[in-house]
Specification:
483 residues, alpha/beta, six-stranded mixed β-sheet, four-stranded parallel β-sheet, 12 helices, 21% strand
């Protein structure tokens, strides 16, 4: 008798945990296949520190083959799911097409940048959902400071030294806090006539509106104390190459717009053709699709009933995704008769932590509010405990960052045109001559030329690709992912 085959789509927080749980429970009595565009799990909460240069990029990536024993990894992106035929169709990184049959399917495709109908944002803003975007942002910000140091026109210099972050949730707040420290350090090496100016915008009445008000006040105080211009009740009305028009009518000259307004489920979720709740697949408390006993979904892809608050669904946070992944793995194993009895997803709020850079943080572990160095120690301790790998390397990087100056250099590996805001795959940058994507997974048809790199001069230091760029558009976390 052949062994049952379980296919997990996506290796974010939910998918990684589901795969690890299944491998442990089935013990080679089932074949477990993990389909993912990359060969690593990305620990998203530490991504702002990669952009700021306090952590190297590989520190926040955990090898899938190296940590998931008994799980077969397939590199590729799911293009279509046929629930009746029990098959998943995918494209590999070189344009090849494959099909995976399954006895049980777990959909954990995660989320991508949320887009709003704001003129110019898709063309001039960049998101923060994947490693390529973090690497691009670090290079871009470093370049702007270096160019400003040799700029003769004071207006252009001021524009290059002005950085706008939209979205004061978890991600946007950390990006502004961490990157402000980076630019201040860069400015000390490259004397500037003006101090780098960071602006944090949000339509919400306060920073971190999804967290407790005390944490919000702590983060707001730290940001303003460092000179970050925090503007609540304000957002972007239009974005241009030369700056940002705000909803209050002010035009801010700038060359940098970071889009952190939240996330939306991966476009594959809608293509599955099952009932949705605000773009997420509706599942029962056991994480199964109604009427589909062989299909499970969790993480940002699923609208999971919140049994602690009847009538509502759990939010799209990494904390929920990580725990749901474990329950999904247990329930899949139970459905195959290989594990313990199935159980519904229930949760207990463990608190949140926001790393504000340096020794500053805001945290409320188990409901105990903390700020300053104590919160910083708890936050970093939490991340080390939550990381499924690389703990010693991360701790070593933090120690070296405290003792040695950061390396403020551009690597030049990721260009503006390779990390568009409107992408179904923030894990992967666009590449010249890359394979065509299966359009079944795209949100909508692109306007003519959208797959091409911008003309030379669109962004200082960014050069057009050598030839046409075909669409290869491809994010999940011990903490809330901002969402």
């Amino acid at each position: 008798m052949s062994r049952p085959h379980v296919v997990i789509v996506g290796a974010g927080f939910a998918g990684y945990r589901a795969a690890r749980t299944l491998a442990r429970l089935t013990r080679n009595r089932a074949d477990v296949t993990l389909l993912n565009p990359t060969d690593y799990f990305l620990y998203l909460p530490l991504l702002p520190q990669v952009a700021a240069g306090s952590l190297e990029a590989r520190r926040v990536t955990v090898s899938l083959p190296g940590t998931l024993n008994g799980v077969r990894m397939v590199l590729g992106e799911a293009d279509h799911v046929d629930l009746d035929a029990r098959t998943v169709h995918y494209s590999d990184p070189e344009g090849g097409i494959g099909t995976l049959g399954y006895d049980r399917l777990v959909l954990c495709v995660g989320s991508v940048n949320k887009l709003l109908p704001v003129p110019g944002v898709a063309e001039h803003a960049h998101g923060f959902r994947g490693l390529p975007e973090a690497l691009y942002l670090r290079d871009h910000v470093t370049r702007q400071v270096e160019l400003a140091a040799t700029e003769d026109d004071p207006k252009v210099c001021a524009a290059r030294c002005t950085f706008v972050v939209v979205g004061a949730g978890y991600t946007g707040t950390e990006v502004a806090a961490q990157m402000q420290l980076l630019t201040d350090r860069l400015a000390r090496r490259h004397p500037l006539p003006v101090r780098p100016h960071w602006i944090l915008l949000d339509v919400a009445p306060r920073v971190l509106p999804e967290l407790a008000e005390r944490l919000s006040r702590t983060a707001d105080r730290v940001l303003r104390g460092r000179g970050v211009d925090v503007r609540m009740g304000t957002s972007v009305k239009e974005a241009t190459h030369d700056g940002v028009l705000l909803t209050d009518g002010e035009f801010v000259p700038s060359r940098t717009l970071v889009w952190c307004v939240g996330v939306r489920p991966d476009p594959l979720v809608e293509a599955v053709g099952q009932p949705l709740e605000r773009g997420r697949l509706i599942v029962d408390p056991y994480l199964r699709l109604p009427g589909r006993a062989d299909v499970f979904a969790c993480g940002d892809a699923a609208a999971v009933p919140d049994l602690e608050q009847p009538g509502s669904f759990t939010p799209m946070t990494a904390q929920h995704a990580w725990r749901q992944g474990r329950v999904a793995g247990e329930n899949v194993a139970a459905s195959l008769g290989l594990g313990r009895r199935r159980r519904p997803y229930r949760h207990r709020d463990l608190g949140f932590a926001v790393d504000l850079g340096g020794a500053q943080a805001a945290a409320n572990p188990l409901g105990v509010p903390l700020s300053g160095p104590a919160a910083g120690a708890v936050t970093r301790g939490y991340h080390l405990a939550a990381l499924p790998g690389n703990r010693i390397r991360v701790a070593a990087d933090w120690l070296l960052d405290a003792l040695l100056p950061r390396q403020g250099v551009q690597l030049g590996l990721v260009r503006s045109w390779s990390v568009p805001l409107d992408t179904a795959s923030p894990e992967l940058p666009r590449v010249p001559g890359g394979p065509e994507r299966n359009q079944g997974r795209e949100r909508a048809a692109e306007p003519e030329g959208a797959g091409e790199p911008p003309a030379a001069g669109h962004e200082p230091g960014d050069h057009p690709a050598p030839g046409p760029v075909k669409r290869t558009d491809p994010p999940a976390p011990g903490e809330p992912a901002d969402e």
